[in-house]
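chain below, 273 aa
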Amino acid sequence: MLVRLFVLLITALLAGGCALPGKGLEGQALFQDEAARERALKIADVSVNSGNFLAAIDIYQKLLSKNKVDETVLFALGSTYLKAGAPQEAVTVFENLESVAPNNIRPHLGLGRAHLFLYRPEVAALYFLKAIELEPENTEVLSGLAIAEDMSGNHLKARKLYSAALVIAPDDLSIRNNVALSYLMEGKYEAAVNSLSELAFTPQSTPQIRQNLAMAYGLAGDETAAARIARLDLDPETTNNNLKFYNMIRRMKDRDLLRRFLLGPRLDSTGET
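prediction:
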């Protein structure tokens, strides 16, 4: 399986099971009072963290049947749809939340993320800008807008936004990683290698960051270094497949198509990654 970049604050989506809620969640008694609501939310949170998205969605929908304007539940439901690979459903939920709480940052953040998944960077940017008006120093929002700019090919503008976020959170590895990936999408492979090399061997580093460094070396044409880094986390067969993938995308002339490949598999209106 090829390792592909996925520069999102929205994270790499988890492939999870889809078991339905257990017998203890049947009926409406679970949702009759505030204490029961809190218990249900905790159960849903556990389900999301275990990749059991349908179970969580079922709980959220039952909670909304009791109170359709519950802002916390609406945001949780929209976010879970995103993690489940259903961005169009997430858009519908976040639009409902926006009508309920237009001055809350959460619907704008959620709609921005959902439109990123739908590869609609211009639309996503509009929502992130609304969110910035409400919370100008929110690093998630600044990073989301930066990703939208990277998707649109505005890499210098994206990196200025990442820099603004790093002033607020200088040790945030995900933001620093995204700066490097911005260089990568622009074709500035040496800058990407240098940026990722500063991150890849720190105690806080992750396999994703190391594999991003391997890709940067691969796109720069240094297959020896790419293979050496890739093998830190991958088996030989996967490493070889990735080297072939790097070679393929290195030859691409269409920059927008290259960005789409580097951003990972995208979602259509109903599909899943």
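Residues 143 and 162 are 6 Å apart (CA to CA). Confidence is low (pLDDT under 50) at residues 1-30, 265-273.
thats it, cya
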